[in-house]
Amino acid sequence: MTEWADSALVLRMGHFREADLWLKVLCRGHGLLTLFAFGGSRSRRRFCGCLDVFNSLHCRVSASRRGNFLNLEEAVLLDGPQALRGNWRRMGLAANCLRFMEAMGVTAESAAEAYALAEDLRRTLETAVELPGLFPLFFRLRLAGALGFAPNLERCGQCGAPLDAGGQFVVDEGQMRCPACRAAAGPARYGVELRSAGLDLLRHVQQELPSGWRAAALPAEERRACARAIDGFVQYHLGLAWEEGFFRRV
């Protein structure tokens, strides 16, 4: 029987049968997995009451005899939110971000960076005095980059020119156009104009963890443009849209 140990962050938890639990977890070395904790709602010796959402655990996991599911044999609490659970607004932001991570899926190859991102997300929601207004959208852009889906916001996708004065994000192409290439190509079917301040902010988000994101507000027009660019990229290239509390495939 295969057995291994890893650090894991609980994204979601549910009950099946009377005393058993299932958990969707992000493991630092193994990626996004579903684990089954038999007796998890009763056993204090094996799980110490530590299986709540957003807790970081040290887990001992084994494969079932037939290898068709994974058993959580034991878990020890490493870290978890304190005041965050009492802040329903920020817990709503947390749920949105964790649902996106679950919808995207995380392989073992991307697990370490995604795990660091998720842990920093929890600490930021717990301790930050102020959050950016586009926080959930920023998380989608940042996680997409961690998983290898980052759009290049540094240079024009056609001529390679730097975008010092902003440019147009062409959603269906997933790339930027400089003013010269935009003029030569004519109107884009779905283009979002990004001024230099908005473009600089999106680059900043791609490079930093949530705790480093700037909370200063952009002018409303630039904020809407950033939101449209991120949302368009996620829907068109990642195939996900947030509707009625869930991400659905589009």
Largest sheet properties: 5 strands, mixed, barrel
Q: How helix-rich are the residues, as a percent range?
A: 25-40%
Mean pLDDT: 92
Q: Which blocks of ≥5 consecutive residues have pLDDT under 50?
A: none
Rg from alpha-carbon coordinates: 20 Å
Domain DNA replication/recombination mediator RecO N-terminal: 1-79
Family: Belongs to the RecO family.
Pfam families: RecO_C, RecO_N
Keywords: DNA damage, DNA recombination, DNA repair
Walk me through this protein's architecture.
- The chain is α+β, with helices and mostly antiparallel strands and 250 residues long.
- It has 2 domains: 3-79, Nucleic acid-binding proteins (OB fold (Dihydrolipoamide Acetyltransferase, E2P), Beta Barrel); 88-151 and 191-249, Up-down Bundle (de novo design (two linked rop proteins)).
- It is built from 7 helices and 10 strands.
- The strands form 3 sheets. The protein has a 5-stranded mixed β-barrel. A 3-stranded antiparallel β-sheet has the order 7-6-8.
- Helix 2 packs antiparallel against helix 3 and helix 4 packs across helix 6 (196-207).
- It is elongated and about 65 Å long.
- The mean pLDDT is 92.
